[in-house]
Amino acid sequence: VPLEAGMLQPLPMEEIFSAPAAQYLLPILEAVPSGEPPDPKKCSPREYLEFYIFPVLLPGLAALLHEAEREKCFEGKRTTFIASDFLTEWLYNKNPRRKDESFTELFSIPFVKDWLKDHPRPPIPLSLLLSEEEASILIQSFWRGYRVRCDSEIQELRRWQKKLREERHITEVVKKFWTKQEAK
Q1: Is 84 helix (H, G, I), strand (E, B) or coil?
Q2: Helix, strand, coil percent values for the chain (each to nearest 5)
Q3: How far, in Å, are 123, 159, 163, 171, 174 from residue 166 at the CA level?
Q4: Which of 26, 32, 54, 164 sits a CA distance of 20 to 30 A from 145?
C-alpha cells in the first residue's frame, strides 16, 4: 500500500469552523472505525492510531482549540493559557477508566504532583497577570513618582534628610531602640 493511500484524509476545515462545537465534535472527531478493534500489541501503527489514539486525542485537540479561542490566545503574542496543561487535564478527566470519578484539576493529578515536586515551575510574569488597565495604572504611577522625585525642591528635601540621618546617626539610634525593645 503506497504511503499516500494510508494517510488520513484532511478534515473539511470550512465545515468544522463554521459549525458550533457540539455539532462537529461527536460525529467527525469521535467516530471510531467500524469493526472489531485490533489487538493493540499486534496491530499496525496505522490501526493503533485509528482505533486507540485518534478517537481520544482529536476531540481533546478540538476542545483545546476552543479553549484557546475563549482565552483569546489568537489575539496576542503572549498569554497565560498553557495548552499542554489544558490537554493533560482534559485527557486525564476524559479517560474511560475514570468515567465514574469526579473532575480533577491539573495540579491535583497524581503524576503532575510528582513531576512538579522535582521540576517546579517558575512564577508567571506579572506582565501576563495584569490587565491592560492595571498595567497602565502601574506605569503611570511610576512615571508620576519619577517626575516628582526630579523636582528641585524634592531633591533638596531628600539631600537634607540624608544629611540629617548621617549627622544624627539615625540608623544606629534605630538599632539601639529595637535592641531595647527586644530585651524587654
Answers
A1: helix
A2: 70, 0, 30
A3: 40, 11, 5, 8, 13
A4: 164
Query: Looking at the 3D structure of the chain, how many domains does it have?
Result: 2
Whole-model pTM: value is 0.56
DSSP codes joined into one string, 98-150: GTTSPP--GGGSHHHHHHHHHSPPPPPPHHHHS-HHHHHHHHHHHHHHHHHHH
User: d(Cα 170, Cα 172) in Å, to the nearest integer?
Assistant: 5
Cell numbers representing residue 17 in the block: 469552523
Compute mean pLDDT per 10 residues along the chain, 184 residues long, and list them.
47 49 42 74 90 90 94 86 93 88 93 94 88 93 95 94 87 91 92
